[in-house]
Amino acid sequence: MEQTVIDVVIIGAGPAGLQAAVHATRKKASVVLFGKSAGSSIHGAHVENYLCVAGVTDGAKMLAIAQEQVLGFGAKIKDEDVLRVEEKEGLFSIGTEREEYLARTIILATGTARKKLKVPGEKELSGRGVSYCVDCDANFFRNAQVAVIGNGSAAVDGALTLLGYTPHVFLISEKLETTPELQQKLDSSTVSRKDGLWVEKIQGENAVQSILLTDGSTLAVEGVFIELGAKGAIELAINLGVALDADTMTYIETNKRQETNIPGIYAAGDIAGQPWQMAKAVGEGCVAGWEAANYANRLKRHPTT
Hints:
Blueprint: E1 5-11, H1 15-26, E2 31-34, E3 46-47, E4 57-58, H2 59-73, E5 76-78, E6 82-88, E7 91-96, E8 100-108, E9 112-114, E10 130-131, H3 134-137, E11 146-149, H4 153-162, E12 169-173, H5 180-187, E13 192-195, E14 199-203, E15 210-213, E16 218-220, E17 223-226, E18 230-232, H6 235-239, E19 265-267, H7 278-301
Parallel strand pairs: 1-2, 1-8, 2-5, 8-19, 10-17, 11-12, 11-17, 12-13
Antiparallel strand pairs: 3-4, 6-7, 7-8, 9-18, 14-15, 15-16
Helix pairs in contact: 1-2, 1-7, 4-5
């Protein structure tokens, strides 16, 4: 029995992937989206800076509404992890936890995998004082005492950014390694340094109250920003020969149509670079879904071109 070919396969169930599904189905393309919404960076977040959203909205609720929209437009959502992707006779073969699918186009919207501290209290207080994105959550900690955890430039940049919201910023690092430019900015700033230390535990009942450091001391804070650097979920892309940015090799290069260097493969959202914001992800998802559907429809009309 001949296997059904899907017009557009979307890998990633966050804002970029869900928006791509909406626009691809509107172009009369068959669409299957793979991913688990709980893995999205906004699942445990509180959103207040997205257009037309009043007040603070729960990210998980927004994703649930988006999934209903996607299903309503006729796309399919499969709660499966994609394990491999490869080219196969002019199409793309997608292997998941359960089976194999064939697609004319792929949209990579996998987001980025934020590195975790893996200490007690981190998971329990995620979204309740523990954050992985300064740009996303700094506004919730105006004039509060906060700590940034990390050893690289991401941590330094995060600490400096937070000074625009609160004067009470601590930077905790075992061995800080950053650029001379950022080091100079840090040295001339009012960020309080805790060098040669790390976090043993994040403490609090219903919200972050303090952190326990490796020297046995306790630091009272309301916010903990974990900035260990974000590694893009790019393994699938690399296997396909998709080009990464030349400078850092941490995100996928795309043009204004969200096309990668491989025909038929698109990328949108966090995996396509900063800023890691939902507004950017949704916009890029819209473009990627539209363009991928157009590409798939052209292939169906002219299969040999």
